[in-house]
Design a protein that fits this description.
By secondary structure, this protein is an alpha+beta fold. The protein has eleven helices and 16 strands. It has three domains: 98 residues, no CATH class; 221 residues, no CATH class; 70 residues, no CATH class.
């Protein structure tokens, strides 16, 4: 059948066949006594017109090379990095990409580079370490990492976050090292928490409509009187009451605390008139400081397939970092990674918004669709349809309590 590729009784069109070869589901045949055919040779022989159109479209962008795209990310275009980038894209070479796809990927690389540069500058200014963005699919320690995401991951939405167009944003940075109050025995940490070796990735998102910070401290009221209060009140009340009344109050209080639940003493005190009743000497006991929580609600309306794909990776990044890894015995977990969160106004840290201690992500709620209907975004390049509207709510909890000294420093 002309214009189709028959595999196991199923006819594949050009896009289906190209995708199957690119993903590795299909392997080009090897004629007897010859070298294995290339994907380009197979597609050209079965789909001459469609493949010629793709080749012609590619020739129109001869000035855009894969080296240009990789350099735009700030990465050296070595053979290893080129092969890794092609694997992430799921293609064998630039001939499998259209003109518009190459333009989108070049723009996307520039956006990621801007995000990585801002992250690097903030890390140098605030924490004193350098974050190195690479295109490796996994890190040198063999940590779990999504095969379609770089490590450390660098994401931004909108794509021009951190540029002159979007100057107010939040930087979420994930680390895998130990931190006080969470994976260390100590509960007090320094301002510089993570390091370049433990950096898992960063995401820059625009500041949502509302930001809030809630500080709560805990108190408990005593149910009965205290001996300390009784003696203290005796010292203050001498001269104002008879010694008999003072001592009766003291003994009544002692009796009530030593033999709690026995009503005889209270009945005698109330009916005799010789002693006061009830516990007027109660206290308010300070119990501690609650951990602060922060919530960020976003509504994303991607304008292109590239933005949709970036949002997919950003959501995946937060879910990977917030979830634990099952240990080798299958019975316990390794704790999830933690985050640092920083507000940037006009591209720089601000003194008008509170600082945030190291946090853990306690919630990542995602919903797709809205405005009365569920809709998918269809690209002109034939990529997989993506949601047209995404709602994301992220919730974080600090792992260290905020003290008076911390409040003086802006927390």
């Amino acid at each position: 059948m002309a214009g189709t590729l028959n595999i196991d009784g199923k006819n594949l069109n050009y896009k289906e066949a190209a995708a199957a070869y690119a993903s590795g589901l299909l392997t080009p045949p090897k004629p007897p006594g010859q070298d294995r055919l290339t994907v380009d040779e197979v597609l050209a022989s079965v789909f001459p017109d469609e493949h010629a159109a793709v080749k012609n479209a590619t020739k129109q962008v001869a000035d855009i090379t894969i080296e240009d795209i990789i350099k735009a990310r700030g990465v050296t275009p070595t053979d290893e990095n080129i092969a890794a980038q092609l694997e992430v894209w799921g293609v064998d070479g630039l001939e499998d990409l259209t003109k518009e796809e190459l333009k989108d990927k070049l723009l996307q690389s520039k956006s990621v580079k801007r995000a990585a540069d801002n992250i690097k500058k903030n890390a140098l200014d605030q924490a004193g370490f350098l974050t190195q963005q690479t295109d490796r699919l996994t890190n040198s320690e063999g940590k779990l990492q999504a095969s379609d995401m770089e490590h450390p991951f660098a994401g931004a939405y909108p794509g021009d976050t951190g540029s002159d167009n979007v100057r107010d944003y939040i930087v979420f940075t994930a680390f895998s090292n130990d931190v006080a109050g969470y994976t260390k025995a100590s509960t007090v940490g320094s301002e510089s928490q993570g390091d370049a070796a433990s950096l898992e990735g960063t995401v820059q998102l625009y500041i949502p409509e509302n930001l809030s910070v809630n500080s709560q401290v805990g108190y408990r009221n005593t149910e009965g009187g205290s001996l300390a209060g009784t003696f203290g009140n005796v010292a203050l009340s001498e001269g104002d009451e008879s010694n008999l009344d003072v001592m009766s109050n003291l003994m009544s209080s002692i009796t009530g605390q030593v033999a709690a639940g026995v009503e005889t003493t209270a009945v005698m005190a109330q009916t005799s008139g010789l002693a006061g009743v009830g516990a007027a000497n109660r206290h308010v006991l300070f119990e501690g400081v609650d951990f602060r929580t922060f919530s960020y609600a976003y509504e994303f309306l991607p304008k292109s397939w590239e933005e949709s794909d970036m949002l997919r990776k950003i959501i995946k990044f937060f879910r990977i970092q917030m979830l634990p890894e099952i240990r080798g015995n299958g019975n316990t977990f390794n704790p999830p990674n933690y985050f640092t969160i920083e507000y940037m106004i006009d591209g720089s840290p601000t003194n008008y918004l509170n600082k945030i201690k190291p946090t853990v992500c306690t919630g990542c709620d995602v919903s797709y669709g809205g405005n009365g209907q569920f809709a998918m975004f269809q690209s002109d390049g034939g990529e997989e349809p993506a949601p047209a509207l995404i709602n994301l709510t992220l919730t974080f909890q600090e792992v260290q309590v905020v003290s008076k000294q911390d409040a003086m420093e802006g927390y």
